[in-house]
Design a protein that fits this description.
Layout: H1 3-11, H2 20-45, H3 54-65, E1 73-80, E2 83-90, H4 109-117, E3 121-124, H5 132-139, E4 144-151, E5 156-164, H6 172-211, E6 215-220, E7 225-228, H7 230-233, H8 238-255, E8 259-265, E9 269-279, E10 285-294, H9 296-342, H10 348-373, E11 382-384, H11 386-403, E12 406-412, E13 419-421, H12 423-442, E14 449-458, E15 461-468, H13 498-508, E16 512-518, E17 522-530, H14 534-537
Parallel strand pairs: 12-14
Antiparallel strand pairs: 1-2, 1-5, 3-4, 4-5, 6-7, 6-10, 8-9, 9-10, 11-13, 14-15, 15-17, 16-17
Helix pairs in contact: 2-3, 2-6, 9-10, 11-12, 12-13
Amino acid sequence: MNKHELIDLMTGVKSSKKTYYTELKKTVDQLKKKNMQLEIMNDITKNMNMEIDIQEILRNVIEKLKQLITFDDSHFVILYEEEPALLHICPNGHCDLEMDPKNLLHPFQEFSSALKEKQPIQVEVNQLPNFPEKDRLLSLEIESLLLVPLYGKSKKIGIWTFGRKKKKTWHEDELEFLEQLSNQLALTLENAQLYKEVLHSKQEWEDTFKAVEDMIIVFDHKGTVYQSNDSARGFSDLVPLIEKSRNLIHDTFSCNKPGFQEILLQHDTILEMHAYPIQNKEHQVYGVIAYYKNVTERRQMEVQLLHAGKLGAIGEMAAGIAHELNSPLTAILGNSQILLRKTPQDNPDYMLLDDIKICGDRCRQIVKSLLTFSRQDEYRFHYYSINEAIHQVLNLLKYQLGKKQISLHLSLQEDLPFIKGSQPQIEQIIINLLLNAKDALDESAQTEKLISITTYSENKFMVVQVTDNGTGIEQERLPFIFHPFHTTKDREKGTGLGLSVSLGIAKDHGGKIDVLSTPGHGSTFFLRLPLLTEEERG
C-alpha cells in the first residue's frame, strides 16, 4: 500500500480528486457543524424537565444558530387564546415571555398554512398583507421570510420565523435541522408554559390557603402536622387543639370518609372541626385536611337569643300574673289592716291576722318585682349623682341593716361626675345588692358582719362595688345567679328575681354587673355604668 492509498484509507478522502488539505477541511467543517447542531439540541433537551429560564435558552439557541445558519432576523409568534401574539424578537429585541393580549398580530394566509401543513413555508415580505411586523421587517431590508411551525405534544404553539435580506434559497439540510430544532423547542416552550401555569396555580392556592381566616391544618399519614395556614399557626391553644383532633384524624384515615366533631378548649372556646381525606390516583389516603371554625361567639349569641326569648315569654306571663294579683292583694291587705286595728293584741286571732298581713306584704313585693322584671315600669332618664343615690338607699335600709348588727363601710369618690339614667331604677339595683348581702350575712357564722360600698371610675365606667363577708356563692352556681327565679336563698326569703331584674336595668343603661365570690368568705358585686362622653357633657 503506497502513501496516497494509506491517506485515503485513514481520512476517507480521495486525494486524487482534490488536494488532501481541501477535502480534510471540508470534513472537519461538517463535523463542527454537526457538533454545533448536537450542542444546540442538547441545550434545549437537557432543560425540558427542569425549572428553566426560557429567555436564556432562546438567547443561547439564537446565538449558536447564527454560527450554523445565515439569517438577519428571527422572532417567535406564539398563539395566545388561538390568536397570534408577538413573543420574542431576535437578535436585537428583548425576550418577553408574558403574553400581551394588546400585542396580537392579525393572522395571514401563509401563517395559517404553515401551521396547517406542519412544515416550513418561505414567503416574500413585500407580498405579505399590511401589519405592524411587516413595517419593521421592511425597515430592516428583510426580503424573504421562512415560517417554521412549532408544535408541542398536545397543541400548536406558534411560528418561528427567519428573515433574510436577500432572497436566498434554504438548503434541504438547513430546513431539516430547523424542523428538528423547532420540534424540540416547541416541547420546551410547552413545558415552560405548563410549569408556569403550575407555579401560578400553586401560588394562588398558597395565597388562598394563607388568607383563609379559619384554621386549616394538613396532617400526613402519621398524623403529624404537614402544613398549616397563618390562622392556625397564630392560634394560642394549638397544641391542645391538635391533641383533641387525633381521634378524628385517625378515624378519617381508617374509614376514608369525612368526619366532624366539636372541640371545647379552655376559656369556653368552641371549635367546629371538619376532616377530609386526601387521596392519590389509586384512591389511597395519604393525608387529612382539618378545617376548624371558631363558633364561640355564634354559640354565645344563640344562647343569648334563646335566653332573651325565654325572658320575653316570662316577662309577658309575669306582667299578666302581677296585674291579676293586684286586685285581690289590695283587698287582702286592706281588710287585714282594718281587722288588726279592731282586734286587741291579746286576742288569739291577732297573730293570725298579722300573719295574713305579712304574707300579703310579701306577695305585694313579689308583684312589684314581677312588674319590674316585665319592664312595665317606665324609665325616665336624667342626670344624677351616684353617691347621692347610694345615700338615699342607705336612708331606707339603715334600720334593717342596723337591726342585724351589720357594719357599713363607705368609700365614695367625691369628684365623680354626674351620670345619665333612671335614678330610681339604679337605686333599685343597689337595694337588691345590699339586701342580698344582708341575707348572706344572716346565714354566715361571722362574728363581725361587714358590708363595704365603694365608688370609683374605671376606664369608661362608673363603678359601684358592694362587698360582704357572708357565706359566698359556690363556683358552679355563679353562672346561674342572674337567671330569673334562680335563688341561693330559702324560698321564703327570696323570689329569684332580684339579680335578674338588676342585670336587666343595668343593661338598659348600657352597663353590666360582675361578681367575684369565695364560699365561706363573702362576695363582691360590681355595678358598672357608662360615663358620659365629652360630647354628651358638652
